[in-house]
Amino acid sequence: MSASEREKMAAGEWYCCLDDELDLLRRQARLAVHAHNTLPPDARGAMAPDVFIEAPFHCSYGINIILGERVYFNAGCTILDSGRVTVGDRTMFGPGVQIYCAEHHKDPKLRSQGIEIARPVVIGNDVWIGGGAIILGGITIGDGAIVGAGAVVTRNVPAGATVIGNPARVR
């Protein structure tokens, strides 16, 4: 029996995102995100101890996001979580931070058929991601690192490093 598209996605293999099961999961995420984004500010509860996600927020699936304690997302963050996104304790995201796990196929014919691969993102403890930063799939950001506002992270960031620019480079 062949693996489902969801199983291939979770395994980091090429999969087709134009799939009924994945469509249903994305729809469930859209409904949950809409509910979160339209709640009065005082009605938003924490997802884990001291986790806070400002509205508006967007994610593709939600099921692939793992958050540590005391994580904070400022307004306008987007996580396209086709791959697993792991965020360590006490990590803070500025407004408009974007995390993109999906990588579409380079072959135009396969890309038009919805073929993509999911790359995980791992963000350590005590990381600060500045507003408007973009983090691509397959990236690891080490503990205590700082990603400057507007940076585009295309390579791993060592623990304790500060990166800025497009592409982000150690400062």
Helix segment count? Answer: 3
Identify the overall geometry.
globular
**Beta-strand content:** 25-35%
User: What does the main sheet amount to?
Assistant: 7 strands, mixed
The mean pLDDT is 94
The strand line-up of the biggest sheet is 2-5-8-13-16-18-19
User: Roughly how much helix do the residues carry, as a percent range?
Assistant: 10-25%
Unreliable sequence segments: none
Give the helix/strand class: alpha/beta
Specify Rg, calculated over alpha carbons.
16 Å
Query: How many β-strand stretches?
Result: 19
Element-by-element helix/strand order = HEHEEEEEEEEEHEEEEEEEEE
The separation of the N and C termini measures 50 Å
Descriptive account of the structure:
By secondary structure, this protein is α/β, with parallel strands linked by helices. It is built from three helices and 19 strands. It has helices at residues 5-10, 20-38, 108-112; strands at 15-16, 52-53, 57-59, 65-67, 72-73, 77-80, 85-87, 92-93, 98-100, 102-104, 115-118, 121-123, 128-129, 134-136, 140-141, 146-147, 152-153, 162-164, 169-170. It has a seven-stranded mixed sheet with strand order 2-5-8-13-16-18-19, with no helix packed on it. Strands 3-6-9-14-17 form a five-stranded parallel sheet. Strands 4-7-12-15 form a four-stranded parallel sheet, with no helix packed on it. The protein is globular and about 45 Å long.
